[in-house]
């Protein structure tokens, strides 16, 4: 009886750990998706004319992006050792082998945002801002993001 309980407890604990790890992965993925919402669903769409230029929306998107980017290092502190179920992208194990290098990809994004903040006034300046920020996102993705499907 004792043994059965130990086995049951061990199973429960490991199921709990797997669930906690999935939550970590989801949390990391949600941060990236939130950044994508600001940069792609708002800023890029405006540069393409898919949605009309709107100064307030631009400023809000940049502020949200800035807040999200500041959370990357901490959000990726723990290696969930698994991908989000059905995700298109996952984190490379390299993130946690070279966490300092991974973290070093964040300040350039912050600088790109700071450089354009308060200076975007029209679609042309928004386009330039989009490219300069997105290039820095790509710098990290090239090494640390894996395409899963
Ligand atoms: C320091 C590294 C780093 C930076 C900087 C970074 N990302 Fe990511 N990004 C990742 C990693 C690792 C993944 C894969 C794991 C995940 O999705 O959580 C990822 C995944 C993504 C995904 C795919 C999410 C999905 O599963 O569909 C999007 C979209 C994304 N990032 C957008 C951005 C944008 C926009 C920026 C710039 C504002 C950015 N990222 C900056 C590391 C980074």
From TrEMBL:
KW Ligase (keyword) present: no
Keywords: Electron transport, Heme, Iron, Metal-binding, Signal, Transport
A GO BP entry: electron transport chain
Domain of life: Bacteria
Amino acids binding heme c: 137, 140-141
A family per Pfam: Cytochrom_C_2
Record's protein name: Cytochrome c
Organism of this sequence: Bradyrhizobium hipponense
